[in-house]
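Figure caption, in words: inputs first, then the predicted bound structure.
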Amino acid sequence: MTRLVSICATLAAAAVLAATPALAGDIVIEKPWARASAGMAKAGAAFMVLRNEGATDRLVSASAGVAKVAELHTHIKDGDVMRMRRVETIEVTGGAVTTLAPGGLHVMLMGLHGPLEEGTSFPLTLTFERAGPMTVDVMVMKAGAMGMQHTH
Ligand SMILES: [Cu+2]
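Bound structure (copper (II) ion present):
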């Protein structure tokens, strides 16, 4: 008597590998800079260009050793006056460039431990919802570079 053993091919298992993870590193932080702080000023701001080559992400927080607090800010027009306003997150649209610049979005540095001196740099960590934390070196440029003054 011949016995036929039937072997069941389990093709289904291979299909599970198809899911693609969200890749960190889709965001490139370009030209991070800050304005030199004047005198005893306790606040400063950092600016940069966020190039997102992946899916839409969100900047959710920032921190820097040079300041007690780093907040995400934007400017809104209030009559003829531009005022700063704290925002919870900054959307970083996929396949696009989001610019943090004087007069617009910026990372506010509050409670500076010392002056930000032109020609120096300091590390700033930006945390994204999907990409996670990224640390960049922020170049300190001349006081008053590119414009607006910060008043709190
Ligand atoms: Cu601000």
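Confidence is low (pLDDT under 50) at residues 5-23, 147-152.
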